[in-house]
Each structure stands twice: as structure tokens, then as C-alpha cells.
Amino acid sequence: MTDPQDAASIDKRVVGETARRRTFAVISHPDAGKSTLTEALALHAEVIDSAGAVHGKSGRKGVTSDWMEMERARGISVSSAVLQFVYRDNVINLLDTPGHGDFSEDTYRVLAAVDAAVMLLDAAKGLEPQTLKLFDVCRSRGVPVITFVNKWDRPGREALELLDEVEQTIGLRPMPLTWPLGIAGQFKGLIERETGEYTAFTRAAGGATKATATVVDAETAAAQEPQYWSDAQDELGLLDEIGASWDEKDFLSGSATPVLFGSALSNIGVARLLDTLVELAPAPAARPDSEGNDRPLSAPTSGLVFKVQAGMDKAHRDRMAFLRICSGRFERGMILTHATTGKPFATKYAQSVFGSERTTVEEAFPGDIVGLVNATALRPGDTLYAADPVEFPTIPAFAPEYFAVIRAKDAGKYKQFRKGIEQLGNEAVIQILRSDLRGDQAPVLAAVGPLQFDVVTTRLETEFNAPVTLDRLPYQVARLTDAEAEVTLSAQSECEVLRRDSDGEYLALFSNKWRMDIIRKKFPDLRFEAMPAGSTVS
Ligand code: G4P
Predict the structure, then answer these.
(1) Is 243 annotated for ligand binding?
(2) Taking the model in full, what pTM does it have?
(3) Domain span at 443
(4) What does the alpha-carbon distance between residue 512 and residue 509 come to, in Å, rounded to a whole number?
(5) Judgement on whether residues 422 and 505 belong to the same structural domain of the protein
(6) CB of 57 closer than 6 angstroms to any ligand 1 atom
(7) I want to staple 386 with a disulfide (CB 3.0 to 4.6 A). Which of 301, 355, 448, 533 is the partner?
């Protein structure tokens, strides 16, 4: 038994450590500068010697694996790095999200593990399609969003116009905290809205060194840049008039977003973003369990698995589950219980994952991410706990809209094929459906976006040495149904019923929405339940 005094001091530590945590993800359209920003953030925190150790883009050192090569070639990023660093005595956990909407299910899972998101906009492009989709996911999860307008060093749109677009398109009221001096492409510095303090930046070449920041008094700044200074003052006056001021309640409720301007490449505004995260973003809070009761932060250890990934790089062919700590103190070696099966789970091999580097984690607190190696039994959405049982709500599977039958090209490789399919299903890379009619040799893949098929075929080929053929099926709509409906629905044309591997649910697939509506009208008593849609996450 733990001494009550020890228990009280552990509780106190948990509360104190949790208050220092900030766990967030960056959402952006590919090319908006997410990798550059991530590197610049880490550079400010001085956890790496020079920019480039976080992500593996061409010419940069980082994570490598076969399928990541494919992602990079296509400008997409499926796999994630988790980055932890200390900034102003706060522990920052930065989780990467896939940039492409076809992987919105994966993004949704990552966003289940964060307390805030940074929405990164390209100053020249504003809200781009993937940003919109990813923002929808944030909204559906109630994640507060900080907006960073990037690439202000390059010609782009007007600041007020960008703010207007954010408000009009996604209904998020912008609350700029800083204001740029100089139009996009003529970036001179940043004015603090609350204090009026002006910081001039001398740009550094590349992302490897910080830009030099100098606080300049208003008179000097006005004399140096008369036109830009007076324009900025006019704009600031306008912002005050329309009441675009900081409001914590609106930020936390997801109806308003603090906005910052900067250039990740020149390291301008990046420290300000970190300050904003530390000062304004919420620390981890008690998480509701599946019954809606909050698990207090100081309750015994618990965590949510939000991602499972194998073969993250060639040197580590193992399978890792990423656990977000939700309550209590995690200590390596502790035995947790897997809520789904009730089985014990040993945490001897707990690691932190930083790009391709891994280090052993000895302890962790709410908000931290722990990588659990060889976690074969764990799936995204699972709960692990110590002592008091708890189960957090599972992460729902999205409605698939693309379907294909997959088969091993070479019958001799069937064993590898089966193993690979099972593995990818467990990682929730794609949904796997089966029916007696089709047999185990030809499962059906169900995807939210077609790029998921490419990830599956590439990984089966490269990791499992199982080349495959894929035949697309003419279905576009899926609904949850049940065993009773199976016989009736299977007898209809342009309709097929299959069972999902992950949860045993029956899915009825239809050629299109009209066909589904006709069948539904014919059998109004059968179960036709919609799933959340990846494209619109309602
Ligand atoms: P991503 O992860 O969101 O896909 O974007 P990434 O950071 O790779 O940035 C995309 C491109 O935008 C890169 O240029 C990068 O250097 C540039 N970039 C990012 N932030 C800024 C910024 O603040 N200002 C300017 N001017 N450019 C920025 P690239 O030429 O495509 O790649 P690279 O060869 O520089 O890596």
C-alpha cells in the first residue's frame, strides 16, 4: 500500500507537472510550412543543434522508411513524429498530423490526443482545402485553435483580408495578438496589440539561425518606416473598433482564434507562438470517460492509445502504440490494464519518439505521449489504466467512401499477405471488411480517401514482401447494419453486406446514395446507421 503522505505528494506532483504541459498539433495544407515551423519551434527550444533533425524532407536528416519515401514523393505525410521539448519551464508536446485529407481519420485520432491546435496558413493562399478539412476535424473535437499566418516575408495577401476569410469561411472570430509592420513581402517587424510594443526583425538566412529581434520605440519606428507605420496604426485602430480583442472564453469554446503573423523560415514570430501556447493554450484537463464522468488528473495512471504504427523506420521493425497520458503519473515498468480485454500490459519498453530517435521514458504525466513498443494487442482508441478501471470513449471509424478487393498477387505469399492485412487493420491504416461469400483470400478494403489504398499496397509490398492486386468496387456509400438485415440486404442488387474486422460491425455497401434510399424505403425497419464522414466530420 502507498503511504498516504507519499500519495499526497505524488498527487501534488501530478497536478504541478500537468499544469506545465502543453500538448498540441499543427494543422495545415501541404507546403504551408509545417515542417519548417516544427523545426523552428524546436530550434527556439534548443533541443536540437540545427534545424533539420525533426522531419525527413529531402536534404534534411530525419525519419526514413519505404512508405515515408512514397509519402514524401507525393508531398504527403502519413506518419507522425512526436516532439517534446522544454520552453520557459513548460513541457511542450508537439504531435504531427497528416497533411492530406485522405488521412483525416488518422488526423482525427491525433487530435483526440491534443489540447490545442495551431492552424498554419500560407500568407499568399489563406485557407486552403486541406486546412478546411482539418479545421473541421478540430471543430468536431472541440479543440481550441491558434492561427499562425506564415510566410509573411513573401508577397501575399492583405492581413485584414486573410482575417476576414477566416471569419467568413469557417466562422471563427479572429483575435490578432500581433500585427505585422509592412505588407507581405516587406516584413519589417511585429507590433504587440495589447501593449503597442514594436519589435523589428533582422532576417537570418535559411531556417538554421534565429532572426535578430530588436525592440524599437514607436517614434523611431515611425521615422524609419513612415508609410508602413501609419498603415499599421490605421489597421490596429480598425481592429479595436470591430472588437477583435482577446477573449479566453471564446478561444476555449472554439468560437474565436488568436492570430499571429510570422515567417517560420526566418524564425520570425515563432517564439511569440511558443509564448502564446504557454500563456494561452490550455493545460491538460480531466478527460471524460465513456460514461461522461471526468477522470481526475490525479486519479491513478490512465491513457488513451491514439495511434499504432509498425515499421516506423528500417532500424526498428517493431510495432509501437502511442499513448496519451490522461491521468496520474506514468512510470516505466508499471503494469497497466488493457480496458478492452482486461489483460495486463507491461510497460517495460516505454519510449519517447523524436523523429527517428528513440529514448527510454522513465516517467510521464498527463499530456505526455509515451511510445509503447511491441504493443501487439493495442489498437487506436484503446484505454490503459492502473488501479481504478476507466475506459475513454473509443475513436469512431469514419464512413468509408472507396472500396476495393485486395488479393495476393502470388499465391505462395498468402501467409505474408494475411499477416500484413491483419497488421494494417490493427494499425487502423484502413478498414478491413470480409464476408463468407468473398472468403479470406479476398478481403475488401474500405477507405475514407483513395491514397489510403496506396499506403496499403506499398506497405504490403515493401514491409511484408506481399505484392497485391487491387480491384475497385463500384460502391460509394456505407451504413452500419446488423446480422438480421444481412440476408435481406444481400439479396438486393447494387448492395452488399460485409463485416468489419476491427469491431465486428456489419457494413452495408451501396452503389450510391439513391440506391441506398430506395432500399431503405423498401425495408424501413432494418438498421441503416450513418458513420461520421471524413470529408465533413459532422
Ligand atoms: P509542409 O511541411 O507544410 O509541407 O511545408 P514545408 O515546411 O516543407 O515548407 C514548404 C516550402 O515553403 C518550403 O520551400 C519552405 O522552405 C517554404 N517555407 C516555409 N515557411 C516559409 C516562410 O516563412 N517563408 C518562406 N519564404 N518560405 C517558407 P521549398 O522550396 O518547397 O522546400 P525546401 O527546399 O526549402 O525545403
Answers:
(1) no
(2) 0.85
(3) 402-536
(4) 9
(5) yes
(6) yes
(7) 301
